[in-house]
Amino acid sequence: MSTHGVSAQPLGGDLPETAVVMPVYNEATVVRGVIEDLVGLGLTVIAVDDGSSDSSAAEIDAAGAIRVSHPINLGQGGALQTGVEAALRFTGAKYVATFDADGQHQSADLVGMISKAEEGGYDVVLGSRFLDGKTEMSGLRRLILKTATKVFNRGSAHKLTDAHNGLRLVTRDVAARINLVFAGMAHASELEQELTQSIYRVAEYPVHVLYTEYSRSKGQPLLNSVNILGDILAHRVGTWSRA
After folding, report:
1. Which of 42, 113, 125, 171 is most buried (most C-beta within 10 Å)?
2. One Pfam family, short name please (predicted)?
3. Is the pLDDT of residue 243 over 50?
């Protein structure tokens, strides 16, 4: 693992220090703009270049983030774990957030989540696409994601409206307890299960996930939704069998 440190701008306004962990894999087309938007708000971005073969590393450096590089691709779960550890090591941030590199997440939503955590004393604030009508998606995708959430809620101490959203905010103490085992996409179910323990004060916040032509070109959204449902089912079956 190698690092490239760049000082972020001082925090403005009343926002507490927040480190934003961003897994990056071949996102050179858009990642600079995404990072610059966050850095412009005074947030510290920890961008994990997860073995990219394009110029993502150069774009990260130019945007003013702290870059951590994997020599090979470990998957989003591995990148998130590395990023969380880096945030704890290299910053004194009160909060650690996770944020996608492809432009789907909105910085204004993250600012709102930070404010909610401050005002309500929450340990965890999770983004939800289903608390308002801003996020546009197909009916089938919506059905699959809501089904996944219902399955997740059967074994969760906190009932969510969106159990698989990549925009998250946790306190430093909660971040220090994160220990992801799954390196690939199955990490998301593992992480949500960790963050919704009964010992935490958990809230959701309405977020607008923007499914752009670019983000759709990076994968198969419907297939990803099916995989999400499968991951949650696998985790829940494992939990029930141990009960």
Report:
1. 125
2. Glycos_transf_2
3. no
* Residue (of 39, 50, 28) closest to 6 by Cα position: 39
Question: Residue 124: pLDDT band by 50, 70, 90 thresholds?
Answer: very high
Q: What pLDDT, on the 0 to 100 scale, is given for residue 228?
A: 54
Tell me the C-alpha distance between 71 and 58, whole Å. 15
Measure the CA–CA gap between 186 and 179, rounded to whole angstroms: 13
Q: What angle do CA 98, 180, 158 make, to 5 degrees?
A: 70
Alpha-carbon distance of 36 to 45, in angstroms, equals 9
Q: What value, to the nearest 5°, has the Cα angle with vertex 79 and ends 211 and 214? A: 20
E strand map for the chain: 2-4, 18-24, 44-50, 66-70, 95-98, 124-128, 168-171, 202-206
Angstrom distances, CA of residue 214 to CA of 118, 197, 231:
34, 35, 25
Domains and their CATH numbers in the chain: 2-242 (3.90.550.10)
Is 48 exposed, middle or buried, given 0-12, 13-18 or 19+ CB atoms closer than 10 A?
buried
CB-count exposure of residue 28 (10 Å: 0-12, 13-18, 19+): middle
Name the DSSP class of 1: -
Residue 113, CA atoms < 13 Å, CB-side half-sphere: 31
- Whether 132 and 206 have beta carbons less than 8 Å apart is answered as yes
Whole-prediction pTM: 0.83
